[in-house]
Design brief:
This protein is 68% helix and 0% strand. By secondary structure, the chain is mostly helical. α1 packs antiparallel against α2, α1 packs antiparallel against α5 and α3 packs antiparallel against α5.
């Protein structure tokens, strides 16, 4: 790896843990998603520029809450989502992990 490139291995490690929680832990997808994002979510700033927008899209979907809610947290936001929406978010997170893996492999 080139000296001037950032090391994204720590970010990938967090995404790996997040994906593990999504796929292995007990409970429905909403419960697993809340748990995973509470402990392992990363900032888009921790990603290569070319995939930051994808992470921002995930962040936007998971943090949108109904207008009558005021506590903008992952737990509150996701608690109001349908299971199908939570499944789509989880799928996008797995895609993000794959994108970062491919990026690191190509360096």
């Amino acid at each position: 790896m080139k000296e001037d490139l950032p090391d994204y291995h720590y970010t990938l490690e967090r995404l790996n843990k997040l994906t593990y929680v999504l796929t292995v832990n007990e409970g429905d997808i909403k419960k697993r998603l809340i748990e995973a994002l509470t402990y392992y979510w990363i900032s888009a700033d921790d990603l290569p520029e070319n995939i930051r927008e994808f992470a921002d899209e995930i962040d936007t979907v998971e943090s949108c809450i109904p207008k009558d809610e005021y506590d903008n947290t992952y737990k509150n936001s996701l608690a109001n989502k349908h299971l199908k929406t939570c499944s789509k978010i989880a799928s996008k997170i797995v895609d993000l992990e794959q994108m970062l893996t491919e990026y690191i492999d190509d360096i």
